[in-house]
Amino acid sequence: MSALANRYAKALADVCHKLSVQDRVAEDLLAFENLLNTQTELRSLYLNPVVPVPKKKAITAEILKRFNFTQTTTNFINVLVDQHRIGYFSPIRKAFHQFLNDQLGVVEAEVTMAGDLDPVTQDLLLARLNEMTGRKVTLKFTKDPDIIGGIVTRIGDTIYDGSIRQRLNTLKAQLRSD
Description:
four-stranded mixed beta sheet; about 15% strand; Glutaredoxin
């Protein structure tokens, strides 16, 4: 994350923590990010330096009324518009999410597998990862048929590779060295 994104995200996370509105603001930010990602004209308007800030703020006010965002979210988005930082919205939102997870002791695990995991196996995996990390883990699943079977789990910079592809590669290396 960039230093700029971290600075804005940390400030927002601190305010949200004091006001106990973290979950609602996180939802608001995700909704606004989705709006920016799907409405290219709106994003272009925000990024266009020729459009005056008062016009951007008027449009922003209308959008925020329709979405019924919290006052904290509204104030934050207005600050980003005032400071010409709306172009950094996605990295700021991601950094904010990370700061919230850090405050709550939550870590995200990216689990890659060839197919689907049944709910019982997901629960067992979650319990084992919670035990290994000593923190509350949230799981994010992706599929990759190239791993053949098993799972690959990434938590931060640590990768736990229990895939069949990795086992085959290890076996191949052992056979070559013998």
